[in-house]
Structures
1.
Amino acid sequence: MASSAVHLVRLARWGVTLARRRALVGVENDPNAPAALRQLVRVARLAALTSKKGPRDYADAFRAIGPAAIKLGQSLATRPDLVGDDAANNLLSLQDSLPPVPFAQIKAAIESSFGQPIEKMFAEIDPDPVGAASIAQVHKGVTTCGRKVAIKVLRPGIREKFARDITTYEWAAAHVEAMGGEASRLRPRLTIANFKRWTNSELDLRREAASASELAEQMAGVPGYRIPAVDWDRTNGRVMTIEWIDGIKISRIDELQARGHNLPALAEKLVISFLTQAISAGFFHADMHQGNLFVEDDGTIVAIDFGIMGRIDLRARQWLAEILYGLTTGNYQRVAEIHFEAQYVPSYHSVGEFATALRAVGEPMRGKPVKELSVGQMLDGLFAITRDFDMQTQPHLLLLQKTMVMVEGIATQLNPDINMWDTAAPYVRSWIRDELGPEAALAERIKQDTETLLRLPGLIRRLEEKYPPKGGAPETPPLPDIKLITDKREGRGWFGYAVAIAAGAVGVWGATALGWIG
């Protein structure tokens, strides 16, 4: 565990790097930020000999700090409530790319992780990577069985670098949150905890492979969307081998049109596939940017890169579906009630007032295409009212929000006239009918009651173990309550008791010497 001095030195170095690019000016000017934090970032700016005036380049600042900071910056791009709209928008441009590691090191990493020569697994590997990110790089290869594959390999030493930096993020977040006020409401410690969980998942390529496999099962019945097959025999914690995809990146609009693809149909398919993952399965690809989506010749959308996944339990999905449907239909009262039922808004606030605030955000959106007003703008509006109603941050919903904005951006490029609400509403309405209708409610009640009945025998057995029946021995009589010397509740420590015992011993010895005690 690093000492506080080590954390302070790292933070000072990072603070100066951020200050040189004016990435801390927003914090310094924010009246809601704790005064102590504003003073610290001011010191960092003065140490960097930088004025407040001038462009603020948040993305370049995080890129300059290092790989873990790049990932943190991408994570903070989902938190306009925490870093501000300007910073969040700038961080969205933060590309996760670094110079590649020499192939000799990659080959050595593959061979050491599998404990055998690379030739026994792969007939050929292109030494030039198709992608080099902060955590891993990807090479195209052919297995000894003749299958074309993508081979993802962790950068040497990357786990240790991330572990070191994250401990400092945790230390800093704990101190900022302890400042109270707005810093406490925004829960920076929870933000870093979720970031740590996501990066730990990305740093174990077996877990990424497992996520791909699970998502493939969940989406098996969805036409026009699929996940590449994992080669488990050539996958471990540091290397993942997956089916190679021959397709067009979904961002290459001209190529898609040249191949005769129906772009509005692709946009709708993308939106429905995301809703299927998030609402039906409760397990969704949370990094659906343009570089991670391909279109095959038959129009099938193929997703890659499953390092960041989101998961939402059934009750939260039911709330989410009702919120989305309520916003699309203008039922702001029900949307407000759900926020109180889910305890997203403290009960001392007014449901009616919250419904009015939601109406102010939702009404301008209805019936308009994304090119005029967007889901992203609506979410920004929702963030703006969270402070007024003391809503604590919900990280699982923030990850969902980030993905919704990504999906919306891609869908808009494919079809500028798409209306996300109109596209989503039929699916959400159908899911609500299936999951929250009378038949579903009755089935769920029967399921819960049956599970409760099945647990009763075990509960009775545990009660009997805790309170066994009386045996043949007589019941133990009440015993006096004796104060133990180890009981510090009386205000005495070991030293006091030692003095008392010594004094008692001297008294007994003296009484014996005087003949008072035989």
2.
Amino acid sequence: MPSRTDGHVGQERLSAEDAGVTVQRLDLSDGVSVVTTSRATGLELISNAAVTQGSAQPVCELSLTAQSDSGGWLVLALRPYNPEGISFIHKVNLSPERTVWSIEGQHAVEFDAPAERHHVSDYRAGDVHIHLQDIEDQQSGACKVGMATAAALFRLEAGRPRTVRARVPLKSAQKIASSAGDTWEKSLHGHCRLHIPDAHFQFLYDAALRTLILHSIDDVYPGPYTYKRFWFRDAAFIIHGLLCAGLTEHAERALDRFPLRQTVLGYFRSQEGEWDSNGEALWIMRRFCEFTGRAPKPEWSKSIVEGARWIVHKRLSENLDAPHAGLMPAGFSAEHLGPNDYYYWDDFWSIAGLRSAAVLCGLTGEASWRATFLSEAERFQEAVDRSLAEVAGRLGQAAIPASPYRRLDAGAIGSIAVGYPTQLCAPDDVRLLDTVEFLLANCLVRGGFFQDMIHSGINAYLTLHLAQILLRNGDPRYLALMDAVAKLASPTGQWPEAIHPRTGGGCMGDGQHVWAAADWVLMLRHCFVREEGETLILCQGVPERWLAGTAPVTFGSAPTAFGPVSISVERSADTGRVSVAWQAAWHGAAPTIQVRMPGFLPYTAEPGAVSVELEKASA
């Protein structure tokens, strides 16, 4: 969009306590729109911003409904401003019909009613806002430095609301619209549905799904502005969220582009110096194949082998007399860990990548490569274990720092990747849990994880990583972390990458961070269903507070490594007993199914069972 349009002025009479209030919300009732209500004494303005399909291309439609007690003007202002800075306007013209703004000679903004007054200003004369009372009406204007501003005025009669609509053609969105199928209904087809009585959690899940779709039309991006570029790290979590939500086509489309980003040496490169990317790429390819029950595509096969070989060759020598012997080289890895170092995050992802490559090669019948990568993964794990044993001696505890040379600090959040999502260790591994306890005791602000390096803010997705570790271990504290993340969401259901601990607003990256949305989807998914080895665990994170009524709590159809499953949890109105039922279409033999709902005795289902009535655990 070449410029931004703003709406000014308002609607009906409001009480004094409502004056000066602005409220924003995300409306999901018909697609996606952002509704902003601004109020002052005797004034109200309601703005509804959405993307709709025009006759030739998508358009951004801004609907402005204004009302004033004493009459006045609704002002639509044009300024050379975008969320990330200046978008220059040198020339602006109002059409003879007074219904279209042309910028630099190009049709740019159209109104559904003629402007009754129109003013233009330039850099030297100041913003058009200070010229709204000028008597002379201007049809066009120019600014040599590209800071032209304009205002289209629409009269308001006292006490009568008026709606004006402005439409901005989105020329760059033509490709997106055609690939997306133009409709939200089609984009959401087959998605995993959640029905819970917690309206806020429900809204955040529904909003997160739409965030994932909006940022995976072609490639996957972790944000719409600063982060509208590709990282394998973010992509692994985002694609995993898409897969777990049943949005398989979006995931597959993104994965098909992975080999194009691989160097001739096998490095999955998004940014140089990030040694976690190959492990993440191979791991998410494996998850795709597990979820779909398919072998890797033929065009992926060479990429998989070369990606795993790159990890093997990139490892440092095991013969070094140093704690980093046999590990990945120093790099900046996930930027929230700090400056260049030998990060365990890279090592855990690389081991997961080798194990995933072995599985994928097994699916394609490449037994030799399968054996090679399994062997290399074991050697790599042994090197990491030796390093961790040495570090434990230095620190005097089992917790895993960010690197062999770091003290325990907030960067240790990266080391819990060994438990989530890679599951390279048992849920109750003492090294993992000792790390989590350190982070919970020292790094929480407003109930969320505060990363004091680089990000300098509360991180929603890293908080959820801690919650995932607790959930996997059956620790009820996972729910407090989920509640904290839910409270940190914006009114439109979004999380910035890093949240300012005082203002609650963003302090790094995009305000709509897609990795955070993906992890919210993954968190809700794992509350209902998750894999642990050859076992499928149901309802481990479903809190009793969701069962206060008698309406069933449902989730599905949820893809899993064993096949899609739908889950229903219901409390009987007559007996108050809680039952869990499931329906599935397994890829092969049914897995072992365990139900581990908090507050109830665990249950292992008999073969062929499709429901269970739970017994309350003793206090």
